[in-house]
Amino acid sequence: MNLKRLFLIDGHSLLYRSYYAIQKLSNSAGFPTNAIYGFINTLKKIVEEENPEYLGIVFDTGKPTLRHEAYKEYKAQRRPMPEDLTIQIPVLKQVIQAMRIPLFEYPDYEADDVLATLTRLAVEQKIPVVIVTTDKDLLQVVGPLVAVFNPAKEIYLVDGQINPEFLKTLKGKKIDQVENVFGVRPGQVTDVLTLQGDSSDNVPGVPGIGEKTARNLILEFGSLNNLKQNLDRVKNPKIREALKKNLELLDLSEQLVRVEDHLNLGLELEKFRLSEPDQDTLFRLYQELEFTSLISQYVSKNTSANKKFSAILTREDFIRLLNQLKQASRLALDTETTSLYPTRARLVGISFCLQPGEAYYLPLRHSYPLAPEQLPADYVLSELRSVLENPALKKIGQNIKYDYIVLKREGLKLQGISHDTMVLSYLLEPNWGKHSLDKLAAYYLREAKLPFESLVGKGKKQKTIDQASIEKVTEYSCQDAHLALKLSEVLWPEIEKKQLARLYEEIERPLIEVLAEMEIRGIKVDLERLRTLSAELEKKLRQLEKQIYEMSGQEFNLNSPQQLSQVLFYKLNLPASKKTRITKGLSTATEILEELAPLHPLAGAVLEYRQLAKLKSTYTDSLIDLVNPETGRVHTSYNQTIAATGRLSSSDPNLQNIPARGEMGKKIREAFIPEEGHLLLSADYAQIELRLLAHLSGDPVLQESFRSNLDIHLETARRVFGPTVDLFPEEMRRRAKIINFSIIYGTSAFSLAKELETSTAEAQKFIDLYFQEHQKVKEYLDKVVAIATEKGYAETIFGRKRPIPELKSPDKNIFQAGRRMALNTPIQGSAADIIKLAMVNIYRQIKSLGLKTNMILQVHDELVFEVPEKEKEPVEKLVKDNMENVCSLSVPLKVHLGWGSNWAEVK
User: Fold this and answer.
1) Fewest Cβ atoms closer than 10 Å to its Cβ: which of 137, 293, 477, 552?
2) Domain boundary residue among 767, 793, 826?
3) Looking at the 3D structure of the chain, how many domains does it have?
């Protein structure tokens, strides 16, 4: 027997499965890609795991077929294909063609009939067939040489008389007989489907007969024909009468259900033979679709091919390299260290690349047994000073802020920073979230980066890089420098093409040094105060725990949502409103507990317990661990390439999450203190986002309020709430503030109602009243969404672009999310650009004046400085002038300044 197998794929079956299995996947241009991605991965899996000799994909054309002629209502009730799935099909077919997998469509025939005919033709030539589908209709054709593979359940469905040699080829998946799964033999499937009908295809069947009854009838009578000849023997009178009354309907249903396997297709088996994929076209398509994981499979794995990567171990070689570096106009560099945290890392070596494919590694502190002798680190770094500190020599790197900090700790100030490829990539693709070197190398260069684990291992046995062989680290580090140089050559022209060069040169590039210096300086922390606070929180948690146990009448694990839900909803019988998406258990999420709090004190106590537990673990305890023992300070890491709006974020610790309000938040901020003889200065932009809204919209009412230095929230309260404002000014101002910011964020009436604790109708009335008073704001917001929809991105006043693919989604919820992004990005993004530019200008002026003041924190719209007491007056003026005059708007920018001996005191 010929064991060369033919795999036939039901295209539409796999397409729909992929579409619903993977949700909300699209590229940065907004094109949906979920169905394509799932389809391709299944295809690849079949090709790689099964290695079939022959393979073909059959699609329906969507046009009427012979079945529609026989029955006009055939498939009439089917919903139209989702729009975001329809538009993926042409691109998917391009990918299939590039994979060189045969694809077939016949306008007059359904895919099921084509698949059945192809199966018969193969079986006649003694070639086994596997049909990949989730459609039960195709179980009709299962036989000794035919199996159906269901990719959703990963199971082969076979005939009880399957050929044993064919059976041996079905490996690695579950195998079961059709009879065990469907209840009848493959030859009886048609009869069961005829009787029960099919609501999805609008096949009528016999009224009153479902799957179970149909199966039992066929099992009893053996076949539909035998049943029709023996209707009087049907025991159930209702079923008997239904069959007798609907014989014509039964014949029609059989005609609709039975697959046709004798079509004249004019096909030969050789047309299904697999050939080598068109790799270049596939790579281009995967790039456009942004399938990073698939791109990586088409990159060069040979990292050192046609490349010259050398370790510098002798003085002669070093002097030769040093001369080359001094004569260069640009270089790429990469440092190797003992830690991911640059403020704790020890420099082990440094690599340089002057032209792609040629790089050199200077090992300095490798200390493993039998390591080659290395040049003294002090000598090498001293000689490199004239290179690294030369501002005219352009430096290129990937996350060069890290290298700056490491070298600064060695007494060297890296000058002449030109291109940080991580930042360049971020400006081009702000939605990526991650801009790692391995991702960029694969995506832009088709090169595979050596994995770090190949040098140092992984898990508990992972060693530091100073224990890795110089030979391996040379290839690794040199490749990093080489990739950074090549990436800069690819990315910079794209930056210029998309008119992002000014944003990079004036804000993002100089900001690298500013953030590096802030991280190096860090902020002093009062460890004793933190330890006291941690003990205080622990005491409160134990008290709360005891109270909760008393209220519930039992002890349980407070950190277990399942155990908590048992107490709340089963023991205390509180109303449950929501199940969790994953475990399907009753939810104990924060919003649920907030709803239950008025009904039972236990819910409020659990909320308080969670809040205090988070404060303790996330802030007091983790801050204690993050204090650098060398400096006694916390050195947060500022992330320049994460937030799509352009905002900075921080980690280890995340300073932006430290509560600004509340007793405990205040106590935590009190632990952030200046050095002796210094004060902390906080400079916080006042209502910068609302001022930007006034500027961008040109709304005369808003602009006049800011020019006249009026309280914008009180003014909004008067316009929206009327005369009642003066009776309850503080409460009305609070509510007006919520409305003001809701407008910026595109909040719905429903969400606003929840925040204001009022009805949706009342919230909508407030929104309508706001827009009546601020018509220009309404016009601007509508316009900004329309422009973002047309262009595919939103833009800040400094030209930062954020792609918003959600605006192209036919899904209403996704579109609304995109709308909110389009409204928010020009305002929040412009605010981020403004504070970044202010940081750059202030840093430069402090340096130029020779002041000892340091910028140490940036949180949202606030900057914090550590200021020697004698510099208080000049620094206050410098900071205020720079922040308020950083750019020209149609309304004034205002900054609130506060001094204090800790971070809480300055607010």
Assistant:
1) 293
2) 826
3) 4
Contact 14, 92 (CB under 8 A): no
| Distance in angstroms (rounded) separating the CA atoms of residues 570 and 797 | 55
Least confident among 290-294, 404-408, 514-518, 817-821: 290-294
900 and 861 in contact (C-beta within 8 Å)? Answer: no
Q: What is the mean pLDDT of the chain?
A: 89
Q: Are residues 457 and 580 in the same domain?
A: no
Token pair of 33, please? 């890609």
| Backbone angle region of 637, left / alpha / beta, with phi > 0 → left and psi within -120 to 50 → alpha | beta
What is the Cα gyration radius of the chain? 34
535: in domain? no
Q: 3-class SS at 86?
A: helix
Nearest-10 Cα torsion for 730, 736, 742, 743: -150
Rounded Cα distance, 828 and 688, in Å? 9
Residues 6+ apart with CB under 8 A from 469: 366, 368, 371, 455
The crossing angle, in degrees rounded to 10, of helices 601-614 and 527-552 is 160
Work out whether strand 862-868 and strand 854-859 pair parallel, antiparallel, or are unpaired: antiparallel
Could you tell me if 305 and 226 lie in one domain? no
Instruction: Take residue 806 and report the two structure tokens written for it.
Output: 């959600």
Q: Which residue has the tokens 């040629």?
A: 358
The CA-to-CA distance between both ends of the chain, in Å, stands at 84
Q: What is the pLDDT confidence band of residue 582, given thresholds at 50, 70 and 90?
A: very low
pLDDT tens digits along 427-454: 999 988 889 998 899 889 988 888 899 8
CA distance 545 to 536: 14
Q: Which of 809, 826, 843 is the last residue of a domain?
A: 826
Q: Residue 553 corresponds to which amino acid? A: G
Phi and psi angles of residue 804, each rounded to the nearest 5 degrees, phi first: -130, 80
Answer yes or no: is 684 within a domain.
Answer: no
Map tokens 């200390």 to a residue: 367
Q: Is residue 382 part of a domain?
A: yes
Check whether the bond before 653 is cis (ω within 30° of 0). yes
Same domain, yes or no: 233 and 137: yes
Same domain, 226 and 363: no
- List the domain range (segments joined by +) for residue 615: 540-625
pTM > 0.70: yes
Please give the backbone phi and psi of residue 410, each rounded to the nearest 5 degrees, phi first: -95, 5
In whole angstroms, what is the distance from residue 453 CA to residue 463 CA? 9
CA distance 432 to 372: 41
Q: Express each pLDDT in 599-633 by its tens digit.
A: 888 888 989 899 889 888 888 899 999 999 889 99
**567/844 Cα distance (integer angstroms):** 59
Q: Quick one: 262 and 179 in the same domain?
A: yes
Q: Determine, yes or no, domain membership for 844.
A: no
Q: Which two tokens stand for residue 236?
A: 């159930």
Alpha carbon distance 726, 806 (integer Å) = 43
Instruction: Specify the CATH number for the domain of residue 574.
Output: 1.20.1060.10
CATH number at residue 793: 1.10.150.20
Residues 316 and 368 in one domain: yes
In this structure, are 236 and 317 located in the same domain?
A: no
